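Side project, low priority. Logging it here so it doesn't get lost.
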Amino acid sequence: MFMSVNMAQFEKLLVVLFLCAVASSIVMVDATFSKSMYITWGSQHASMQGEDLQLVLDKTSGSAAKTKKAFLFGSIESRIKLVPGNSAGTVTAYYLSSTGSQHDEIDFEFLGNISGQPYIVHTNIFTLGNGSREQQFYLWFDPTADFHNYTIHWNPVEVVWYIDSIPIRVYRNYENEGVAFPNKQGMKVYTSLWNADDWATRGGLVKTNWNGAPFIARLNHFRARACKWNGAISINQCSSNIPANWWTSPTYKQLSYAQQGQLNWVRNNYMIYDYCRDTKRFHGQMPPECFKSQF
């Protein structure tokens, strides 16, 4: 009897310790850019002060920053004001990524254009080093006139890309059916501004006009309400269905009816490319997730 009581107490203690470990892994990066990130290249002209990050591109170099911590699941958001005027050839990137040849990655990339022509929002997701899952959109507003919120929400069930709280894309977890999903690698948050005039605008036909340099993209209000990556132990900690892991709650497992309506509005009116419709590219052998319901 004494032994059974002690064993029961021991099991309760293990549960408490596990919950404490999970709770300690949850990070609310409610801090400024300067506390959460650091500049990785282009420090001679990029700047970071308080809530604000300014990325600069000129003929000498672009610039970039990344977070000090890596995460596994949660919500990553920032407000961005893109390069104004003739931004052809430039790319402003904002994404999550792990490292190595088998890396995972979730992308927002903003492809510049000549004055008066719309930006293209390029989204992609890599799993185990494999991308080729691009979807592209025009925007329903001028992204250079003011700041707009761009959020990546990522949990064990799905990844959702949001612009100003409107979902534009969903990638669901069909790992149990042989479709890879990014759920076992911690990812840092990266942002950069760089010259990509070999492909970014009309497939590289329109080159960067350096007379317009320096090109400047501005970011502020970075927030990462996410689970801190502490190595392989985080795979279970960050995916556990407990209240502290708010991203695993039923609310975030599928878009609401209203959100599905918003998503369909964007896709019907502003989507310009979907890899799942590009049969010529894949020679008729479409990726398996293209046959699955995503929302």
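Brief comment: The longest helix spans residues 2-25.
Revisit when time allows.
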